[in-house]
Amino acid sequence: MRRATAVRLDPLPQPTPVPAPREGSPPRPAADPPPHEVPGSVDEALAAAADWSDLPHPGGGATVRLWEALATLGAADLEVARAVEPHLDARAVLHQAETAGHPVDLPAVLRGPGTTWGVFAAEGPGVRLDAVPGTGGWTLTGTKPWCSLGDRLDAALVTAHLPDGGRGLFAVALRHPGVRTDGTTWAARGLVGIPSTPLVLGAVPAAPVGPPGWYLERPGFWWGGLGVAACWFGGTVGLARRLHAHAAGRGDDPLTHLALGTVDRLVQDGRRALAEAAVLVDASGADPGSVGRDEGSRLARRVRATVARGAEGVLSAVAHGLGPAPLTQEAEHAQRVADLEVYVRQEHAERDAVALGRSLAAGPAPW
């Protein structure tokens, strides 16, 4: 573990409570918030996250605290955040299934508190994963692309094609002998410690999570995507802090101040978007029927775009403000830049803008 400065989404930090002084003793001033302990590596993150049962689920009334935790991890190390976020998302999905009346019959091997989870819901051209029903239950056969840490996690929630043409979500043990990687090399220079390559499954037993279509149709589907945006935001804050440290020692340098002012506006835009979204997610979480899939997708696409465009702007402003030296002489900074450039590409950019516009055109103007 290592110490890291927390990232806050609330505009005004809350005072840290301290024990009341004993009678007759002088009052003690409020303590500063302590530095947060964050894992120092992907392996350490996976080991730690498996036991983080005290972090809130999105929509449970404390979503901002969950996203602050993810942003704090991202500001310290984006690989750590990238390892932890899907584990927490999987935990939330299983919780949502249970509270919706769809308890999951997990095999004993996946019930332990130390189980590490991923979520593999992406699809790609030329590959397909099929769910096959049988007398002994469901099995999964085929290839699933973009399986981050698929060779190191214990389990995953995986989407697969159903015989009727729909989609279903299944819990699968990744240590099963029928699961293997396809040998694809992870060529990325960012998120090097989070290889995201295809997995090949051969008749691997799987437990259904919710009824057919539930995973994609539930309002909470979009909340996981906002958790990813919180990680991007954390990486953005990490870059902003590096520029601020540089500006503090530059005296009256107008170009450095220009870069810092530009970065501040972008960071504040992302912070406000996530803070507002957390309030809306919690409001809908109290009554999942109060927000439909369209409203959830619009919120997520707007916020993800705000944070992603902010990250791209910060990457540019920080590069202009710092010049080439940190990219060539500071391993931590160079890695953060490379990690964020890869990670933020999970936002679908123009495709999401098209989907948002199509959704809006089908109803009254929202402004």
Number of domains: 2
Q: Assign the structural class, choosing from mainly alpha, mainly beta, alpha/beta, alpha+beta, or little secondary structure.
A: alpha+beta
What series of H and E elements makes up the topology? EEHHHEEEEEEEHHHHHHH
**Any idea what the radius of gyration is?**
22 Å
What's the total helix number? 10
Give the N-terminus to C-terminus distance in angstroms. 46 Å
| Amount of beta strand | 15-25%
- Tertiary shape: globular
Whole-number mean pLDDT: 89
User: What proportion of the residues is helical, as a percent range?
Assistant: 40-55%
Give a count of the beta strands, DSSP E runs of length 2 or more.
9
Sketch the major β-sheet: 7 strands, mixed
Which runs of at least 5 residues are low in confidence (pLDDT < 50)?
Answer: 15-35
Describe the structure.
The chain has 10 helices and 9 strands. The chain has 367 residues and is α+β, with helices and mostly antiparallel strands. Helix 7 runs antiparallel to helix 10. The protein is globular and about 75 Å long. The termini are far apart.
